[in-house]
Design the sequence.
């Protein structure tokens, strides 16, 4: 099977900018360079060769009725054309879609971005 081209969605680019600002804020700017090196040196080549590398995103149990409703809508939206997967690499969670002729990088988050900033609500 021929390798599929990996395309980067605009949302993924926005997420990278958010990560850069986040890492600058926690005084870890070198971590962003490491992230980019890992994406272009390891993640993208791996996905081109082994697109099913990540876990099936739609097989996750959402844990709430609202989450289940959203998962069902997402499944109906993408099931015919795309296969959604998530790839965990180091501190980052990457959401990507496998299509017939391409792989789309949809979203990326640093694990520390997935938490609530409660202090900001009370300052």
Sequence:
């Amino acid at each position: 099977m021929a390798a599929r081209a990996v395309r980067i969605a605009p949302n993924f680019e926005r997420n990278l900018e958010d990560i850069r600002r986040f890492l600058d804020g926690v005084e870890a700017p070198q971590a962003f360079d490491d992230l980019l090196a890992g994406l272009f040196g390891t993640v993208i080549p791996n996905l081109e060769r082994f697109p099913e590398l990540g876990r099936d995103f739609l097989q996750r149990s959402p844990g709430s009725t609202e989450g289940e409703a959203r998962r069902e809508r997402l499944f109906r939206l993408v099931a015919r054309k795309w296969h959604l997967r998530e790839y965990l690499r180091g501190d980052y969670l990457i959401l990507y879609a496998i299509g017939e002729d391409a792989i789309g990088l949809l979203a990326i988050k640093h694990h520390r971005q997935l938490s609530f900033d409660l202090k900001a609500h009370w300052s």
In short: The mean pLDDT is 82. Helices lie at 10-25, 29-49, 65-78, 118-121.
